[in-house]
Amino acid sequence: MLIRKTSDIKWFDITDETVYRNRRQFLKAGSLALAGTAASTLLPGCLTSAAPEEQQAPQAKGPYDTKETPTPYQAITTYNNYYEFGAQYQLPARNAQNFKTKPWTVKVEGLVKKPAQWDLDDLLKGLTPEDRIYRMRCVEGWSMVIPWLGIPLKNIINKLEPLPSAKFIEMRTILDPVQMPEQKTDLLPWPYTEGLRMDEATNPLTLFAVGIYGKPLPNQNGAPIRLVTPWKYGFKGVKSIVDIRFTDKQPNNTWSIANPIEYGFYANVNPNVDHPRWTQKTERPIGQKLTLTQIAKGEVPLKPTLMFNGYGDQVASMYAGMDLKKFF
Amino acid sequence: MPHRRWIWWIVKPLVFVACLVPLYLVIYWLQTEQLSANPLDDITDQTGTWALNFLMLTLSITPLRRITGWNFVVRFRRMFGLYAFFYALLHFTTYVWFVQFFNVQAILEDIPKRPFITVGFTALMLLIPLALTSTKRWILRLGGKRWQMLHRLIYVSAAAGVIHFFWLVKQDTREPVLYGIVLGALLGFRAWTALQPRIQRISTPVAR
């Protein structure tokens, strides 16, 4: 009997504009992925072990790309902090399978020339997604290298024309307890909300991601559109955004509401400011294969965390003169 | 349950091996890549969880015996207690190895600095004298009463273990709270039975 996992079908059945724009990478990755699917159809048991090698990451070429080896696709898409779909890392990949991302409406409101409800396709029309290979450092102490496909948020903001009085941008995840099981609980104050200062939002590093590995963003990674700020801890990356609000007051963000002692508004990666309960001096790069033999030989991945996650050249000037111990 | 002694020569080794299954599974999952993208943290979580599970199992022997009258279950109490120590030691080893990478100075700084590690380390330390004095010889040497007093340290250790779990989770406290409830019930049962005879003594004359 042929049983195809929905995750196999999804990427090939959807032709996305962003993928088309990125067709050279897509062709390369796609043919390899197809080979992987064929193999997994014949040998279903090999699917999980075969998948990582089949995904080819875009090569580092832009000025913001890290030269580090990207984390395997399999790891990026099965180890997720997306509490709406479950509070354990492996749950979002399972629980988000049938999440509906089409059609998708984004409400733009607040200090903006024309408040409006945008269809996502219209909002992104004429804006070109770019490949960006970024480090990602989670506040919990692990890290990945992710080949994003994203639109610089600056380009979207230019299109939306905020008023000069707008000093901050606030972004919210969809509130949909029917599709998102944990939104039925009070695990966090829903909907998930994040914010940036306008200069942070328009920094060339800041993206609205629509894909990874040159493919549409999987649901568990925040489809159809999510924030990426590589110099900040991962929790700043609000997923499945339906609401953008320009404001003159610093927005509250979900984790700082839930636990103001441990999480702040800025959340800049900073090895000199420990989390109250654990160190931020080091991080564990994850997703690479690890056997008992390797562990026994002492090949335990652990490396020092860099200030601003290594993006100081691009972002440090925005925080000049600020006490980063106070504004953590 | 069986009164024939030979049966224990089969049952006990079986239970002994069964208690190693969680360790076997973690290694098997690691080798077959069935752990998450962060396998080292999975190993730490699993060994910690099983240290707590065996502490709870050990503490459930007495209530089970009292409620059901199955005195034979006491034969497994020491084994479960030693397995709790075994998994706690493995759990601590993962911290020394995977988290601190044998940096003794960092470990010595970390233990007093971070409350969840302080309390977890305390839970482990409290188990050491219990593991060392778990033999029949030590019961005789200390005398039943004193030995029992000493081994009540497991109550403190288990409570410290649950607090350790509660303090380390980022936001989702549901699982540690569940352990807290189970531990509360197991210790509550003891408090309740300890009070029973006194209540009876007081109430008996009135009943007459």
Oligomeric description of these chains: heterodimer
Instruction: Give the count of helical stretches of chain A.
Output: 12
The global form of chain A is: globular
Low-confidence stretches of chain A: 1-53
Assign the CATH class of chain A.
Alpha Beta
Q: Which pair of chains forms the biggest interface, and how many residues does each contribute?
A: A-B, 34 and 23 residues
How many domain modules of chain A? 1
CATH architecture of chain A: Alpha-Beta Complex
Could you estimate the helical fraction of the residues of chain A in percent?
A: 10-25%
Mean pLDDT of chain A: 87
CATH superfamily of chain A: Oxidoreductase, molybdopterin-binding domain
Annotation field: number of helices of chain B: 10
- Overall pLDDT level of chain B: 91
Describe it for me?
The complex is a heterodimer of chains A (328) and B (208). Helix content of chain A is 25%, strand content 20%. Chain A is of the alpha+beta class and 328 residues long. Chain B has one domain (5-189). Chain B is built from ten helices and no strands. In chain B, helix 3 (39-68) packs parallel to helix 10 (174-207) and helix 7 (136-142) packs across helix 8 (144-151). The interface between A and B is medium-sized, with 34 and 23 residues.
Task: Give a short synopsis of this structure.
The complex is a heterodimer of chains A (328) and B (208). Chain A is α+β, with helices and mostly antiparallel strands and 328 residues long.
